[in-house]
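Hi again,

Forgot to attach this to my earlier email, sorry! This is the prediction with 3-isopropylmalic acid bound. I've pasted everything inline since the attachment limit keeps bouncing my files.
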Amino acid sequence: MANPSLLILAGDGIGPEVMAEVKKIIGWMGAKRGVTFDVTEDLVGGCAYDKHGVPLHDDTMAKAQEVDAVLLGAVGGPQYDTLDFSVKPERGLLRLRKEMDLFSNLRPAQCFDALADFSSLKKDVVAGLDIVIVRELTSGVYFGEPRGIFVEGNERVGINTQRYTESEIARVARSAFELARKRANKVCSMEKANVMESGILWRDVVQEIHDKEYPDVQLSHMYADNGAMQLVRWPKQFDVIVTDNLFGDVLSDCAAMLTGSLGMLPSASLGAPMANGRPKALYEPVHGSAPDIAGTGKANPIACILSFAMALRYSFDMGEDATRIEKAVEQVLADGLRTADLMGPQDGTPISTTQMGDAIVAALDASL
Ligand code: IPM
Ligand code: MG
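Structure tokens for the complex follow:
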């Protein structure tokens, strides 16, 4: 059988630095677990714009459609802020999501015991937290038409459109219910049905899919603003949260910070199954390109490494090795190793990006 294939798009800022640590883990999988990946690398974001004048070249897009999974680092940087909207680094990422039709974005927020003190919330609120936000990723206000900046009379008007079809809501709802069944069997759906028609439809369709196909799963509905408040008040009330593209963007940043650091959180963006049965998939850390610390060795590679673990679990049916990587991360944190983002100013000396990667590889070795 052919080796599993990966396309690595490290991107901008700290992307290449954290991805270098993932490559160590990929190498470890080959050397110690006998799983060799065929790895291709290419450009996305600002670096692609610098070379090709577009944030994602058509050839790169075509490669992304062919591989078993895409691993992405991060895109963006201040030098690209003044570019035309159509070629901004983020457009490269949005094109990948849209053309691969990655409608279900899983964003786990898990609090590692060793970091519970580091959250801005009280320890008992976050200790042991383990929730997943399922964010719809290919529709809603991010992509709805009409959109643009138009002139009306003597002023400009900015327009974006929130638009959801029943089938778009149904498929992301199914993925949330499927996930819940493997977890605590609870889904909370968030929208603004009190002010938006798209929210009313969202609530109806989620309820319908539940009643017809997943009556065993416990379902609740919440307005998204209340959801934001509840996430901060008592996040452990949730198991799986399913929500639209924009609410999911905002709520997942909020959920991320509950765990202490954005530098810890992975994500998976999944589409429909391909001919080989694997879902179309892209894995990326939730954090951005952090241009302020790029090149300083301060970046935390854990989110990117855990994203690779998600790839093993969701694309390659290697849940055991995914768990092994997650345990290795837990181990190095329990040993007190910290990158700069996981420390206060008084907490001693942080280790570097590469030292963190090496420590995780050493913990993996010790696990065999
Ligand atoms: C995210 C990011 C992206 C988004 C940006 C970079 C386009 O914030 O993945 O959450 O808004 O979806
Ligand atoms: Mg975001």
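DSSP finds twelve helices and twelve strands in the chain. The chain has two domains: 1-108+262-368, 120-259.

That should be everything now.

G.
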